[in-house]
DNA sequence: CTGAGATTGCCGTTGAATGGCAATCGTGTG
DNA sequence: CACACGATTGCCATTCAACGGCAATCTCAG
């Protein structure tokens, strides 16, 4: 921007400002915002005013500002995600009513899994997923399922990056991760125990779009003591097929499946 | 912006661009975007590039662009709406499983009702609500409930504006609308038949926050032939109380209610 | 009343943003 | 294969929206 000391674009500053809000900072004073974003106060006040005019931010009773409804509206109205979310929701409810643990729906975005829906269960395992929250790919069963069924290039990209260790069970060795991905691809689901928090396990299965590409991962988070994998995988698989079909998926014609008819 | 022929801010142009996407235009070529927003092509290309860099837009396989996941993420992560939505969802499911018709959750935003969640029923009444969609306040039972329970100033604001007629049943007379609002406030719910589309009725009840202020309207959309109001109001009331309580509402100590204990 | 912090008005400066033009790229068409 | 048409990008002179420092004002707790 003109006379800017930092050389950032207005758009970048906009993102900086919006990013300054999070779960624990849902509303901020403009002065706080200036500090958190490291922008000159006067500039922050001016920019915030523009955003208030457009409804992208909203003023609260206390004079603080928060994310505006209009921003959410613009983002949600035509986001391809909302179709996926809406298609998945009823099936996720089914899963949750049977499994009685956290059910989540995640997509691949950049180097993370982005959770676009979750149903929480009060009395259940520790759950660090948050709506519109991100977790590292190799730290979640959802992430590994998504990568396992994505084009090879995606897998290579994951393996070429350093893998942060979160617990004793986090897989940080590329070769080992590669083996896991192959197994997931072959079995059709992922079960990972304590790879990001020691207490809980994730079980995840892929959701496919019309072109047979993975579009999301459906998963449940359960306490490690009560994984009960076989039963839960079946529930997840059933739901995932339902979601896939609702999205226009026609069913994968894989060799091993549907032999029954001829016999 | 510098050398701008229109005198708009970058922020305003950003909103213009994002607004160009809707349900039927989920992805656009940049040239289309320039036409739809009425911005000079070269300017549009540059701005779109900035947005792509920030992830606010995303490029598709075909070269078109669409709303980026990052925009949704930023909007949802700390939006006060997500708390409301998440609290309401389980209760909405309850309602929908009993009523078997469209269930919606709406809030007041500007001159409209903004729908922040909806559960659709395939074989049900016509439903023109859309997720993250808007409808005029006086055209929906949700809107009337929200206004009826809002501070008087909100009501006056609605009554001072011209009221568009959508069907023969739309209330466009301020005096009549005022009577309706009073009745809704007194009864505690709204039933409006065919005020925006002739075929369907809306039944709506208020959801309250910790400070006893309305924060949302819970509603069902049913075919006009099968309103079955009394039963449905009870279902909605029950659910709305559940949501309110989940939000920290302590229960309104109104004269008429909870007499039983003493008697 | 006083001080600390938040917010706004003022204003000279300037480079980010702008948009026209022409070249290039991509795709379909005769 | 030549040609047309539209999308996209490189170039670049122009300029005003954006910038940010400073001081005044407002707020509020102590």
From TrEMBL, chains A, B:
Gene3D superfamilies assigned to the protein according to its UniProt record, in alphabetical order: 3.30.450.40, Winged helix-like DNA-binding domain superfamily/Winged helix DNA-binding domain
Organism superkingdom: Bacteria
Chain ranges of the HTH iclR-type domain: 8-69
IclR-ED domain boundaries: 70-249
Pfam family, one: IclR_C
Entry keyword set: DNA-binding, Transcription, Transcription regulation
Name by which UniProt lists this protein: IclR family transcriptional regulator
Species, as recorded: Arthrobacter mangrovi
